[in-house]
């Protein structure tokens, strides 16, 4: 293969991404300001009380999910990183990983069965159980991996110098695990914020979130102008948040 | 209060919470009764019905076709780019261009792609779905494979060439085998993301082309008791569990060996 052909091949993914990913985004931006209102559509979207309600409701669900999954993941990450034996750790890691790889719709459908059994399908409570179920592993893995990297000598040093277990945890382990916590929180809050499937399938009347709104604007009301503006705002938020994430968080290895 | 047993109990409890829905689903697929939680007897009827369900069979085939093609194309292109930008060129621009698709919410990607297709007035179906899947998967392949090439020191190729290998032989016999873990990850990740994709497929497909997640969505959204769906879901869960078990096992063991 000649050097030139190789170079062209190597650049193909970039060109492909420019055409099939960046061009649509640009088109969306153009579409959003091409109506009669022009750029005023953005102020309309940002001041529309109904949209703001949906956005803040989605934000509330996302933050609540982040907070609860954090509370659940923290002790388990601690157990995995500092207490469990090597063999148990390996098996538990696999066990927590595996359900994450089952198709999202199937997991949600399976949950729907359980929630119907418990008679809480379509309630806010049921929705939150679903959100926690979906997002808990995304919180656990980054926290665990940053706990795992902590040098045990540091903890022993704290102990030798008289720190009680509670102090060791709060003053040594938690600060050193912060990058993982930030990663997990970013990952969960961002994906939960724009999730569509879980709220739509499990939430009933409580499931009208941002993802649903965009879906409706595009497929039901055919209001592409407003839909595009809203989608573009979310894009900016996502890029901003993930920039913080790469700056402060740790990267999870595949 | 003893901390260790408490934590062990809590971990076990959460694990049970993770697996309970899957267990109920599988049990339900063998239940004679259509109603969840009411056990009437063992049956394989729902599985037999499934084999005659033309919509499901077609959707399975569609999904396999899209996932296989998108996994192979993305891995090939992403892999070549990963090799090129780890060896011959500065990769800053390529890295950032290919990083953005991963952090953008899928629904944004889906609606914007739909707008492009509508603007170009193309017929929605197999090709539009495939093009959309590749657009996303290329980034994953690139990110999975490039670090593997980066980790391999240049001296290995030079040694091979000094010992008489042509550059192509050096690539095929030295570099490629060392990059295999990344390539395998790339194929598996892109295949499963493509096969499981729902949001983007939904927005970029036409009336004649459905994949399994779409069929599950349509049937579950009607919220009818659909025992065949339980059977279908159980088969898919079993396959996912088995393959992801093997995959995570392989990943973790590989990590242990390092």
Walk me through this protein's architecture.
- The complex is a heterodimer of chains A (254) and B (258).
- Chain A has 254 residues and is an all-alpha fold.
- Chain A has 2 domains: 33 residues, no CATH class; 210 residues, Orthogonal Bundle (MetI-like fold).
- Helix content of chain A is 81%, strand content 0%.
- Chain A contains 12 helices and no strands.
- In chain A, helix 3 packs antiparallel against helix 9 and helix 6 packs antiparallel against helix 9.
- Chain A starts with a helix and ends in a 6-residue tail after the last helix.
- By secondary structure, chain B is mainly α.
- Chain B has a domain of 171 residues: MetI-like (MetI-like fold, Orthogonal Bundle).
- Chain B contains 11 helices and no strands.
- In chain B, helix 3 runs parallel beside helix 6.
- The model of chain B has no long low-confidence stretch (mean pLDDT 85).
- At the A-B interface, helix 1, helix 3, helix 4, helix 5 and helix 6 of A face helix 1, helix 3, helix 4, helix 5 and helix 6 of B.
Coarse structural class of chain A: mainly alpha
The CATH superfamily of the domain at 54-224 in chain B appears as MetI-like
CATH superfamily placement of the largest domain in chain A: MetI-like
CATH class of the domain at 54-224 in chain B, please? Mainly Alpha
State the assembly state of the protein chains.
Answer: heterodimer
Uncertain spans of chain A = none
Q: Radius of gyration of chain B, Cα only, in angstroms?
A: 23 Å
Q: How many beta strands in the DSSP annotation of chain B?
A: 0
Strand content of chain A: under 5%
Give the number of helices of chain A: 12
Number of strands of chain A: 0
Give a quick account of the main beta sheet of chain B: strands, pairing sense, barrel closure. none
Report helical residue fraction of chain B: over 70%
Strand content of chain B: under 5%
Written as H for each helix and E for each strand, in order along the chain, the element string of chain B is HHHHHHHHHHH
> Can you count the helices of chain B?
11
Poorly predicted residue ranges of chain B = none
Number of domains of chain A: 2
- Provide the structure class of chain B: mainly alpha
Q: What separation lies between the terminal Cα atoms of chain B?
A: 38 Å
Largest beta-sheet characterization of chain A: none
